[in-house]
């Protein structure tokens, strides 16, 4: 299999990929092979950009949320899961202070914002919001029958807010796309059309600070608490043909991510700046959006707890009708490249 370009894309979240990309390590790794390393953002073709969701670009890597890879696999895209990260991530139900919603005891009968993207095939944020609500209602001893889900229709496609360019480390997703996700939901909250919304990570930190929202329920589920149902995994995937035919290249890519994890632990200030740039956050907000442990949480693994978390997310997508149960979860996991990468680093 001859390769002249390796493609990458990543979500605006703290990942080892961000370090390796912004430090130029991946381009450096393959320069001697005559292989270019390019972001999907460097293309002018919208179909290439959409590979962030449908994973159709050949010889590509993706590091980000779990919803698009599972949806893409359910629609026939050839991909493999190479590893899972489980960084701390703030998550909560929020309400306006004047709403009277202050805790789980106030949720019964309330109107919950539920976004629906009308022009997207992969409505990843809707899936995450529903997962957050299910978590909150379980904790509160309630069910979806006890609240009103208010559909917030959104005509913008996610890709409409993408950023393109060929700058070093360019990502499709930055501050504009990050904070556009909940634009219509926030309008509905401010207009009194809904009482409660779910938010997390960078979006939640900004909304909380700007609007002075009431945190109705804290829904963070860090790895150290072992909640393999409600954690927030980030998933590293790659084109299936690339994994099958050039495992050496995939192992080298992963080895650079192992290097990035080690670097982040020793370079906290620089890592904070990288997270801020990738997420669109002020540096002061990074730990509010994630935690003060985030700089040592970029490791990628397929340990049993992380695979169990990912399987729980798969089950949620099946139960919610986002993907059919025919998707073979176990067949998507490829542990060989990570084992080979660790061997490369001794």
Description of the structure:
The structure is a single chain. With 346 residues, the chain is an alpha/beta fold. The chain folds into 2 domains: 5-87 and 231-344, 3-Layer(aba) Sandwich (D-Maltodextrin-Binding Protein, domain 2); 91-225, 3-Layer(aba) Sandwich (D-Maltodextrin-Binding Protein, domain 2), CATH 3.40.190.270. The chain is 41% helix and 16% strand. It has 16 helices and 10 strands. It has helices at residues 16-22, 25-31, 46-49, 51-54, 67-74, 124-140, 175-180, 183-190, 201-211, 240-245, 247-266, 268-279, 286-289, 304-319, 329-332, 336-344, and strands spanning 5-10, 36-39, 60-64, 79-85, 91-95, 111-117, 148-154, 197-200, 214-218, 234-239. The strands form 3 sheets. A 5-stranded mixed β-sheet has the order 2-1-3-10-4, with helices on both faces. The chain has a 3-stranded antiparallel β-sheet with strand order 8-5-9, sandwiched between helices. Strands 6-7 form a two-stranded parallel ribbon. α1 packs across α11 and α11 (247-266) crosses α16 (336-344). The longest helix has 20 residues, at 247-266.
